[in-house]
Design a protein that fits this description.
The chain has 187 residues and is mainly alpha-helical. It has a single domain, classed as Ribosomal Protein L9, domain 1 (3-Layer(aba) Sandwich), CATH 3.40.5. It is built from 6 helices and 5 strands, in the order H-E-E-E-E-H-E-H-H-H-H. The protein has a 3-stranded antiparallel beta sheet with strand order 4-1-5. Helix 1 packs across helix 4, helix 2 packs parallel to helix 4 and helix 3 runs parallel beside helix 5.
Length: 187
């Protein structure tokens, strides 16, 4: 969702991708490596052809060096995404997706398209899902009232997109409520 510059006081999509890069993903290493300690934790040992879980940042680094193959997460396939798209376009509520699905999908597919069956179809489905969810998000914000905001299954990117608008709108709503309350005279 594109927001005007004054409302873009939030984390950028690139920063969200960096945060999401701490999530673990399965890889099939192509080289052997002993258990290695990093600030964020120790990972390995890597023993081809056994699968291993490592953070996305490490998987993408190894992939770019042609030292591993990334195993797509269970949810990042055409069948699952087609099902979610149907739910998004026919249902009123947001379908359940991983909290950082947009960021994880972008990083993995941009880095390792050859590890995904039909990456172009996956990209297209992800784009359609994001557009359907953005439309629901805009519709939900137009029906906003002061007593409750309920948008279950919103993901991190979507929360980040509406956060500046929501904060500003709540500030205006609070000002309106304050102005509407009668002033008590202190005698």
């Amino acid at each position: 969702m594109a927001l005007p510059a004054p409302l873009r006081a939030s984390v950028t999509p690139t920063e969200l991708e960096l945060i999401a890069s701490e999530q673990l993903v399965e890889i099939v290493p192509l080289v052997a490596m002993e258990r290695t300690a990093f600030i964020s934790g120790a990972y390995g040992p890597l023993r081809p052809p056994s699968k291993c879980k490592v953070p996305i940042w490490m998987a993408t680094n190894l992939k770019l060096k042609k030292k591993c193959r990334i195993v797509p997460p269970d949810w990042l396939n055409v069948e699952f995404l087609e099902e979610r798209l149907v739910q998004e376009t026919t249902g009123e509520s947001f379908s359940e997706m991983p909290f950082r699905f947009a960021e994880v999908a972008k990083v993995l597919i941009d880095t390792a398209p050859d590890d995904f069956p039909n990456p172009d179809k996956i990209r297209s489905l992800l784009k359609d899902i994001r557009e359907a969810r953005q439309a629901k998000s805009r519709e939900g914000l137009s029906k906003l009232d002061h007593s409750e905001l309920s948008l279950p299954n919103l993901c991190s990117m979507e929360i980040n997109e509406i956060r500046p608008f929501f904060i500003r709108a709540m500030g205006v709503l609070i000002d309106i409520i304050k102005d509407a309350q009668p002033q008590q005279d202190i005698a």
